[in-house]
Design brief:
The structure is a homodimer of 173-residue chains. The first copy, chain A, is built from 8 helices and no strands. Chain A has 173 residues and is an all-alpha fold. Chain A binds a DNA duplex (30 and 30 nucleotides) through helix 3.
Chain lengths: 173, 173
DNA sequence: AGAGTTAGTAATTGATCAATCACAAATCAG
DNA sequence: CTGATTTGTGATTGATCAATTACTAACTCT
């Protein structure tokens, strides 16, 4: 097992990573499967061995991005103190925005896509993040947990815009 | 001057309105100029008499949407009391989200488009809205005006997502 | 060795689309 | 009435793209 081996799982992950980059940079509808394939260093038709349609590839890419966010938030909730909970959640989100910016940019795009399968993934992702934060705020004894959760999500959405448009003044104080 | 007359100005406005609807519903990159033309009840090539490219049409549509928002906020700021300022601004935004939802959905799409001309319009729009709100909060003697402005914008962004995904639970309380 | 399976590609297809061109119909000015 | 301008469309073009087809190459197991 050399590190150059190419398993089917690796290939699929490569394609998803390439798709996240290309879709985020170029825009899902404008990006072509050939561009994704080129980034993944495979031929264009080979993409369709792993994903039957372009939309299915988007769906999978979105699932990956939500899983990353949810896992990260869960880790914080399971390991921090009530006083550090909110700042640590904010820090976790900022880390993701730094390291996996393209995944967040892709989520932003998907917010306005009207295909029902896409909307469903987005709704599930948002609902689960909200659930995790709300439960954690409640367990930490934070008062007005519902409103605080709303404000936490709201600041997250503004951070996204701030990053996407390169307008740090929008969020910084 | 009958109300059925078609001036060049009317035609242009028709095309912009049609573009806002079609782009918002279908997505800018996926929407076709033929669909815009059909909605505006003209032929597809005639669109290009008023806009030299599809992107220029998007740019104009975005300008219209920002002008609507900015004019609305200015009206509130110029006419309300310091105590009613924030609730009235929130109400003004909710009204726009109800009546001109497509314009906001188009702005959301444009947040992730990387063409520099599009980004410039979006940055100017956000910067001007922020300036208006911040100045008004300051003039109204609201403490921590900067932070309150940030939170106002943040709640606005969450409202957008809540509307786009039809998830009222995200913003309601 | 060689049959069977997996990994991968070149070439093509049918559809779609932004933009242009060539032209027609209507309106207007003198 | 007529020439000029404005308003508008049908037909076309050249490019692009998702998806399919028909292959080849490489590996695996016996």
């Amino acid at each position: 097992m050399a590190d150059t081996e190419t398993t089917s799982v690796n290939r699929k992950a490569d394609i998803i990573s390439a798709a996240i980059e290309v879709f985020a940079e170029i825009g899902y509808f404008r990006a072509t499967t050939a561009q994704v394939a080129e980034r993944a260093k495979i031929s264009q038709p080979y993409v369709f061995r792993f994903f039957s349609t372009k939309e299915e590839l988007l769906l999978t890419a979105l699932e990956v991005s939500w899983t990353r966010l949810i896992d990260s938030f869960r880790k914080v909730v399971d390991s921090t103190s009530p006083e550090r909970l909110e700042p640590d959640l904010i820090q976790a989100y900022e880390d993701i925005l730094n390291v996996y910016q393209n995944e967040i940019l892709l989520q932003m795009q998907a917010q306005t896509i009207r295909e029902e399968s896409i909307r469903e993934v987005m709704r599930q992702g948002f609902a689960e993040v909200r659930r995790i934060v709300l439960d954690a705020f409640g367990a930490a004894g934070i008062p007005n947990a519902e409103e605080r959760t709303m404000l936490f999500l709201a600041r997250g959405m503004l951070c996204n815009v701030s990053v996407a448009l390169a307008m740090p003044e929008l969020k910084d104080q």
